[in-house]
Amino acid sequence: MKILALILSVIALGLIGFNATKIDFAAPFENDSIIAIITIFASLCALVLLQILLVSKKIEQKTKQAS
């Protein structure tokens, strides 16, 4: 699970980097720029969810060790 989360995190970071180059800062809310912004936010949400998953797995392991 940890390796899968790491791979997905790297993919999400790659998408953020790629889409950051697609933003036209002169008109950020027009045409392809808005799509790039939406994709960046979606990738950030994926990163947050993956981090929550990893933390919950660590908590689960510690509770199993304690009992």
From TrEMBL:
Transmembrane annotation, as ranges: 33-55
Keywords on record: Membrane, Transmembrane, Transmembrane helix
Superkingdom field: Bacteria
Annotated protein name in UniProt: DUF3955 domain-containing protein
Annotated organism of origin: Bizionia sediminis
